[in-house]
Amino acid sequence: MKIYTMLAMAALLSPTLAAEEWTHLGTGTLLDGWVTPGIHYPTGEVNPANYVFEVEIYESADRAGVYKLASPWTSEKYPFLEYNSNTTPHDIIIDATDPTFVRIEPQESGFVHKSPQSTNWSDPFYLGCMGSYYESEGNSVEDIKSYGFASTLEDGKINIKACFGRYSSFLQTVDLGYQWSTYPSGETVVTLPSENPAVWIEKGEVTFVDGWITPGYLGNPEQHSWKVKYEEMEGTPGLYRLTDPWHAAGCPLRGSNDCTTAAYLVVDATDPAVVIIEPQQAGFTDEIASETYNFFIGNDAGILYQQQLMSPDDIKQYFPKRCDALRDGIITIAKPLFGPNSQNVGVQWVDQLTGQPLPYGARIIFPGADDTPIEPEPGEERDRTFYEGFEAGSGIIADDWIPAGWEERNTPDSKPTPLQLSHNINNSWWCAESSDFYQDMTLDGTKEMYIHFSYDSDQGWCRDAAQDEWLITPEMQLTDDEQLHFLLQADIFKAFDYALFDLNTMKFSERRKVHTLKVMVSTDGGDTWQEAWDWADAVAPDLTDRELWDEGYLHLTSHTVDLADYAGKRVRLAFRYMRDAGSNTGNSMILDRVVVDHPRSASVALPAVDADPDAPAVYYDLRGMRVADIRTAAPGIYIERRGSSARRIVVR
Question: Which CATH architecture has domain 382-603?
Answer without folding.
Answer: Sandwich (2.60)
